[in-house]
Amino acid sequence: MSVTAPKGFVANGVACGIKPGGRPDLSLVATADARPVAAAAVFTTNLATAAPVQVSRRHLAVTGGRAAAVVLNSGNANAATGSVGLAASERMCALVAESLGCRPDEVLVCSTGLIGIPLPMAPIEGGVPVLVAGRAADGGTRAAEAILTTDTCRKEVLVPGDGWTVAGMAKGAAMLDPNMATMLAVLTTDADVDPAVLRDELAAAVAASFNRITVDGATSTNDTVIILASGAAGAADPTAFRTALHEACAGLALQMVADAEGATKLVRVQVAGARSDAEAAAAARKVASSLLVKCSLYGKDPYWGRVVSELGSAGVGFDPDLVSVAYGGVEVCREGVACEHDSAALDALMERREIVLAADLGLGNGSAEIVSADLTHAYVDENMTTS
Amino acid sequence: MSVTAPKGFVANGVACGIKPGGRPDLSLVATADARPVAAAAVFTTNLATAAPVQVSRRHLAVTGGRAAAVVLNSGNANAATGSVGLAASERMCALVAESLGCRPDEVLVCSTGLIGIPLPMAPIEGGVPVLVAGRAADGGTRAAEAILTTDTCRKEVLVPGDGWTVAGMAKGAAMLDPNMATMLAVLTTDADVDPAVLRDELAAAVAASFNRITVDGATSTNDTVIILASGAAGAADPTAFRTALHEACAGLALQMVADAEGATKLVRVQVAGARSDAEAAAAARKVASSLLVKCSLYGKDPYWGRVVSELGSAGVGFDPDLVSVAYGGVEVCREGVACEHDSAALDALMERREIVLAADLGLGNGSAEIVSADLTHAYVDENMTTS
User: Fold this and answer.
1) What is the topology classification, in CATH, of domain B9-258?
2) Cβ distance of B338 and A49 shorter than 8 Å
3) pLDDT grade for A180, boundaries at 50, 70 and 90
4) Which of A301, A309, A331 to mutate against chain B (most B CBs within 10 Å)?
5) pLDDT for the residue numbered B180
């Protein structure tokens, strides 16, 4: 289970000294022969765009959607760092290109960590040659390790296709890390996919996966999802590839929420009966983002009144006399008012780590799911200070 | 300092048995002669509108903006209670009308407490006659006491005018109470103001006060602000009255944030340099609502990177190279990057209970302030369970 599972990729992760304590902080995913392959990316919509996002976006534009490598650092987001930050991201790409033997604009770059602090270049100048020299077909785990910040575990995924494979690694969920600002994901495949197709398929997969999770509603300065397609396994059936890519993105997204800061619950907020899928998604996102609903879930309290209140203020079609709410299939509110239910069964359900919180608006056929986490003492602890 | 300070009003508060432990839970503000006077209200925009909001709205429409009394209960929101809930709110008004000697539709009603639980009518049937019988010109404090839920103190305001006065009482901030859903405020004045003018002035004052605070972003099912104008002091200068009403609303709003659940900080988020006042307000609200910014403030950590990130994703005009951020006047970010500052002075500022967090977008003349609180362990504690 590694980004190097698809044919044609190597990877590595090292500790170069950005993070204290000798923890891994520099990561590489590259093509085995250092030649550029089809590449696509989805970047944050935050206008306070970090330097690496600006540089990667420019490189993909210059090459027309091709890349030979992705270099990533953790421990510093290189965001809100101005022109010095841009030069630092370009330098990271140039260093990789020099060691790997490709053009600088064939390298994409990601950073994750503290915002507003200049990226320390000495560790990177010294670290990149070592990182590139140590790249290997079995280096995927090291690469996945070196991008973590407050994550408690690696996030990797592997989806086999018909002779080809989609794999990926990721870190963080939304503003998961207290010191920074990022979710990053790098996917690889050996399927042969045209860059333009790859871009559209990645955008669709991200919309249905990473964009359907929320931890704290923060859209970071550095969010990036990149895919490289080596083509080493030849053409893939388009539908099968689309399905595999969705599955890979969804797998990484779920791992992010499951490892969200301080979370004790993974909550699937499902809204049905909306006037449209878009309205269902907006309503589900409102409930999934509610501090009060998240606190209730932490307290194992099926307080559906808060759910109804969030649905009523979600800016979507809503009739208080038609709404129903259920936890884990146990209906607690029907036609807008409390209904009889098995309290013992409900209490048992609320003890589970994964909870389905379902609401039906009774207005139409729109439905959507947003996956979220609870709000806990540990979340506050992790985000109180950056030190 | 009481809602009965303006001439022509009486009030009372009693414990009728909705709340456990004999705590006050039934409150009245009425005209001294039980005759209807000019009245106006602003209600929640939540579509899951509680029964008392629906009933009060209907009564004001029927009377063309006149009321003789407001009855309020705490301990139960009478929200998500269907037609039974509507009948309960109407019954509360009828009971008051019978004891007071006015028409039922001349009574307005508010409730605050748990959502989704039928309002217990026996305590109210028994309590209202006692409540009305005990009304007095010195009953304002009792009235202000009986509307509280998790509030730790009464919220009252008194703004003297030229021969007339504006006074008010309130409870809660947004979804302040763990068990429920409400901010309520009742204002009184002895100025003689036409109902239509009163409605417009109240709407403007609410927009600039109660709608400029946020604790957890929840728009409750029961939010209500009501004003009664007895006219006993004669006509008021329109501009002076407007100013006094704004001041009264702002005073109550600030008391709400200062007493927000578990809060250790009152934070004035000020955004200037936006393309418009509306964009400034949207940006300030995004920062003020950010879990990460709120956690940082709790931790006394001036982590401006999170502020810039929220500004960049607020959906307003933003240029990362122009933004500046200051805490208590100490600038920490200039033109989008960290700047030299007096760290000792900054550390001392972060210890204060009230903090001004100011951002300048450098794009125009739009400015706005949103007042917020920090996110603390105590907030999570108070909202984990309803018991």
Assistant:
1) L-amino peptidase D-ALA esterase/amidase (3.60.70)
2) no
3) very low
4) A309
5) 35
